[in-house]
Amino acid sequence: MAVTVNVSHLKVAARGEGGMPIPIIRDVSFSIKKGEVLALIGESGSGKSTIALSLMGYTRPGLEVVGGRIQVGDQDVLALKSDELRALRGKTVAYVAQSAAASFNPVVRIMDQVIETAVTTQMCTRAVAEAKAIGLFKSLALPNPETLGHRYPHEVSGGQLQRLMAAMALMADPALVIFDEPTTALDVTTQIEVLRAFKAAVKERGVTAVYVSHDLAVVAQIADQIVVLQHGEVREAGQRDQILHEPDADYTQSLMQAAQPEKRVRPSPAKALGTMAPILQIKGMKAGYGKARDGSLQKTVLDNIDLTIEPGRALGIIGESGSGKSTLARVIAGMLPPAAGQVCFHGEVLPPSLRARSRDQLRRIQIVFQNADTAINPAQTVGEVLARPLQFYYGLKGQALTKRVNELLDLIRMPSSSADRLCRKMSGGQKQRVNLARALAAKPDLILCDEVTSALDSVVAAAILDLMAELRHELNLTYVFISHDISAVRAVCDDIMVLYAGTQVEAGQSQAFKSAPYHPYTDLLISSVPQLRRGWLEEARPGSSGAQAQPEDGLCRFLPRCSLKIPGLCDTMPAPRHALSDGRNILCHLDEPSLRAAQLETV
Amino acid sequence: MRKSYSLDAEALPQDGLAVAERAWKSLSISGRVGLVLVIFWLFIAVFGAFLSPYSPSAFVADDVFLPMSATHWLGSDYLGRDTLSRVLSGTRYTVGLAFFGALLASATGTFLALYAAVSQGVLDEVISRLMDTLISIPSKIFALVLVAVFGASLPLLLLTAAIIYLPGSYRIARALAVNLNSMDYVEVARVRGERKLYIVFHEILPNMLNPMMADFGLRFVFVVLLLSGMSFLGLGVQPPAADLGSLVRENMSGLQDIAPAILAPAIAIATLTIGVNLLIDALPQSGNGKGGH
Hints:
The structure holds 2 protein chains of 2 kinds. Chain A is of the alpha/beta class. Helix content of chain A is about 35%, strand content about 25%. Chain A is built from 23 helices and 22 strands. In chain A, strands 16-17-18-13-19-20-22-21 form an 8-stranded mixed beta sheet, sandwiched between helices. In chain A, strands 6-7-8-3-9-10 form a 6-stranded mixed beta sheet, with helices on both faces. Chain A has a 4-stranded antiparallel beta sheet with strand order 2-1-4-5, with helices on one face. The mean pLDDT of chain A is about 85. The radius of gyration of chain B is 23 Å and the shape is globular. Chain B starts with 15 loop residues before the first helix and ends in an 11-residue tail after the last helix. Chain B has a single domain (about 50-280), classed as MetI-like (MetI-like fold). Chain B is mainly α. The interface of A and B includes residues 369, 426 and 442 of A. Chain B: Keywords: Cell membrane, DNA-directed RNA polymerase, Membrane, Transcription, Transmembrane, Transmembrane helix, Transport. Chain B: It is a multi-pass membrane protein.
């Protein structure tokens, strides 16, 4: 049973201070034909989730629908009473939330949660429901569908949990499924599998779906129709190909541009390699957490890391979550003393721990954290945040301090009046600018940027990347840029290092990362980044993802997921590090010609 | 990500009256009732002595347990003193002792908690176990023992209340501080090379003030009840001075006559504690001010 969804002149408002309604959604209309997938796309705050939730007759606390009609099938959703709404939700309209990890009850087995609605509403017996759930697990390409239901949510990976959540939504054969940013929190390699599973399940069952996302490339794979939202208004709506190929609205074009960072102007490459003394040098570094009795690490996060950065260059470090990228930044900053190896800065060995470093050593290396919401004290004003490093490192006071704060605000393209504003009242992009400016205030030699753009919308993130590139030229900064997004890294960095499970699998200059051969893992990362064209999802190579049994010590860590492994060699001998002809070095048994042959044939 | 649509609040005039008006409007009805009650009792505690029609210890009425009248608004007590004057002065004792007792407990508890949370390790362990020891002593018995040993005096009552309610305050503050201590901005301050005291007072404390204020209000109510109970047992404020609890006790014999002399202080205790509770419940509970939406 598929239905047509019809939303006309929907208006949602928030109750503001003093009872004045603040419009959140202003007059949005669209309709979805049977079995079609409609994508709602926009930045955070554009109202896309609010619209999606209103399709279930739900608004977040503090919001209310002030006008319009929502028709799902023959039901007028906004006119339903609360018990009728309860019948609608889960049965006719189902919802897949962004964070599956937060939506599952950790102490109840997966099967019990998946079939709960079906059993409690007495739609069918337990046995029938379980059989149906197993069928759904199969069609969502979940491993071990027969036994998966006996596990607890923490025993499966994030990507699997997201698909289980879709299974839960599809249990009642809903007419309409709402996917609310279901892959945003996943690694690209996992995202590709989840997207495939969703697309297949939606096609197979002929359900109508609403897919909420901020990522145009993801939407291009799955949607039939696209609605572009900004500030609660429709900027553009139409068929997928029309939006992708001939976007009308300026806003859609800026979204498209932001989605393709490599098309933007690259900063001119810094001075030639090898001409200057390195600013930072790390050799044979090992780090991790927990000390066992014999002094070894309980959990090794980074093993045998070598890196060298020359002044004025930007090094990008990429890898999936859990690869040890952030730990590397923490070791350089002195927050985590390494278990072996040294950090050399300007030729001298830095003390391993924060306490032993001098104030000047601390000043010269600044770290910018990923999440500006937590990295900036919400109780302080922008001025206070920026002034503190100036007072602390340079002892500035009065006029000189105000002047320097204003200079910094100018650097991050913010008006000097914003110095008096509280940080918690700033937008995400503004906070990230302040976060960056605080690091700049110390006039450091080296800035460590830990996923600085991953919590931001693509347009805002692109602006931050541009700003960082400009500042680098103005102030001759050296960056370490940590990210999971290989396209962002290729756009802003001179050198790239790829981490997998704490080992350095590939390193070299950024230009060399433009074409095959790659280390098999780098290849997987690059081919998993969604591309802005239809059909990409079908063409992309399937790669196995997620946490899998770790190989024995010393062997290639990527072994269980590698599609090019050589039985008898890779699983018995540690992989050697060897150089490619363009200067990169990789940690792999395969030589350059065979890697090139394997990777070119599929591209 | 949270969209800050409250930005336009910045544009409104920022004078005190407008701020007060907005604060009033943001309160629920029960919160407003609580606020009115709290302001009323604070006013009585501070200015009550000036409004008092008679001296609280003077025998001014013709008879004991008189009903309400034009000369004695709340009648007279068991010795023929003016009840209104007694309640006005009793409020000062009760509110004053409770306020400073709770303040002492909250301030000490918060400071110890912050220091423990930032220091971690052995120091945290030692302070926390000391507090656990204090928690394990039954509070009423502890108060009775202290009064029995040292005799009831105002400073002792204050100190007793503070010691009894210190560990609870410490526990809450430490839980908050440990969470805040792992925030990235504290980490940033540490990487900058900041000292412990700066981190405590500039990075952590401002973000836990709201919940600690709510906790302070709760402790205030507990201390009011503890002191009233002690006074009721005759171990609190000593005659001829009397707090609200002693007033209830000394006028016990008027209970059969339903004399205002016993009703008035009992109602005073009830409205004061309920008022504070209502106000606390209506306050935004979140430490970083995000709870407004």
